[in-house]
Design brief:
By secondary structure, the protein is of the alpha+beta class. The chain is built from 20 helices and eleven strands. The strands form four sheets. The protein has a five-stranded mixed β-sheet with strand order 1-2-11-8-3. The longest helix is centred in the N-terminal third of the chain and has 39 residues. The termini are far apart.
């Protein structure tokens, strides 16, 4: 009987192992392949496939080799301007990238059929939680309502002195160190924009905080980069999924968990200090300067039923830091590049500002609004060198149709703006016009 029991246990163990392997094979490899075939049978060829890693791996390689993580998408668009969509896979999921304006318009009309994909935004979610970027439903609407007030046009005008302060301080430090030659301009600009984002949300005292000997903006930037690379380099992610990084198995995992905890605790302490003080941020000259945190705390006092939790405040602060630091810094870097490439444009912008007759330290939103040529130049930079070429990836909640495209449940869909910005006739205006026509 002992032999029989042992053989039975061995048989059960083998059976469980076979079932686990089959399920693993299906979820990691076969499911995405069947999904790709679903679109191929509709007449849309598979544009890129690599088991499990797929498009994510391609982005990492292009980022290192080409200096542009979106090189593949842009290259396809340049080679075939009539291509309507891209069909790829990405870390175990099928991804459809919409290029055609008609499909994009229909996608936004049916946005309720999708949810923000948690898996593809996993690294980001670990640090920014459920801020306005990743929140859904009623909480997203609340975040949007309060933060829109905090970043209204009048409020943005009050940020001009903050921007001037940061630029003067950072450039002053560079001049003092004599490091203005052969610099990594993007890194410098990211430092500027990151600090502006933190100051506008939490005030100067917070932006000057230091963690592990690093300014908080640099610490956050390095932490985000490490979190993104962690998923790609971790040996167990493929076998057990992305959540394995939260178990702290490796020394690097534990260090990143501590990093996330440290930055959130630093934010929480600052919120508590401001709550106890009961006032807006006080500048060095004794005047009050309202920031985003002040708007949120006042909202909490007036609307206790719709109050932001401390975690939500932290989530939104980190969201604005990451969003403001990365996209804004890239636009500014592109602008500097084009000004160096086209000195006649630079001369005209400088002349326009000089004719304004207002020193930088005294600029207002009304003054900036008069710089029409600068405005046109920046819009063209956004068109040609847009910092992000696609939208938030969303997962289809059920199988449905987008025009003649049938979208399978679970497919990750995103819209690419690059085609709209590069082509005038099939551009953003056409997408807007199609949306307006559908609403009538």
């Amino acid at each position: 009987s002992d032999v029989y029991k042992r053989q039975t246990l061995i048989f059960i163990a083998k059976l469980v192992g076979i079932i686990w392997f089959v399920l693993f094979l299906y979820h990691k490899l076969l499911r995405e392949w069947f999904g790709l075939l679903f679109y191929k049978f509709q007449g849309f060829p598979i544009d890129h496939y690599l088991p499990y890693l797929g498009f994510y791996f391609n982005q990492v390689l292009d980022g290192k080799r080409k200096g542009d993580a979106n090189f593949f998408q842009k290259d396809v668009i340049h080679k075939d301007g009539n291509k309507r969509l891209l069909v790829t896979n990405n870390t175990g999921k099928v991804m459809v990238t919409l290029l055609d304006p008609t499909l994009i318009a229909e996608f936004y009309q049916q946005i309720h059929m999708y949810e923000k994909d948690p898996d593809l935004m996993y690294s980001l979610k670990r640090i920014i939680g459920n801020g306005i970027l990743l929140a859904e439903g009623g909480r997203w609407r609340l975040h949007r309502k309060v933060l829109t007030e905090a970043f209204a046009f009048e409020s943005l005008g009050k940020m001009i002195p903050i921007i001037n302060e940061v630029i003067q301080e950072r450039l002053g430090d560079l001049k003092t160190k004599g490091t203005l030659q052969n610099v990594e301009i993007l890194t410098i600009i990211q430092g500027l924009t990151g600090e502006v984002a933190l100051k506008s949300f939490f005030g100067t005292n917070f932006s000057k905080s230091v963690i592990d000997g690093k300014p908080i903006a640099s610490y956050l930037s390095n932490l985000l980069e490490a979190l993104i690379l962690q998923l790609f380099r971790h040996p167990l992610v493929f076998l057990f999924g992305k959540s394995v990084v939260n178990l702290g198995i490796t020394a690097n995992d534990r260090a990143l968990i501590r990093g996330i905890k440290t930055i959130r605790e630093t934010c929480r302490e600052h919120i508590e200090k401001r709550r106890r003080a009961g006032t807006a941020y006080i500048t060095d000259d004794g005047t009050q300067r309202k920031d985003c945190l002040d708007f949120i705390l006042k909202h909490n006092e007036k609307n206790p039923r719709e109050a932001f939790s401390d975690d939500e405040i932290i989530d939104n602060c980190l969201t604005f830091f990451i969003g403001g630091m990365d996209t804004t810094s890239r636009v500014i870097t592109f602008s500097i590049y084009y000004l160096l490439e086209y000195p006649s444009i630079k001369d005209r912008i400088v002349s326009e500002f000089q004719n304004l007759g207002v020193p930088v330290s005294k600029l207002t939103t009304e003054d900036i609004g008069k710089l029409k040529y600068l405005d046109a130049f920046l819009k063209e930079v956004l068109r040609v060198g847009t910092p992000t070429i696609d939208t938030m990836p969303r997962s289809a909640k059920s199988t449905h149709n987008l025009c003649d495209l049938k979208v399978l449940k679970g497919t990750v869909v995103k819209a690419v703006s690059y085609t709209h910005l590069r082509a005038h006739e099939t551009g953003r205006n056409l997408v807007c016009r199609l949306l307006l026509e559908k609403k009538k």
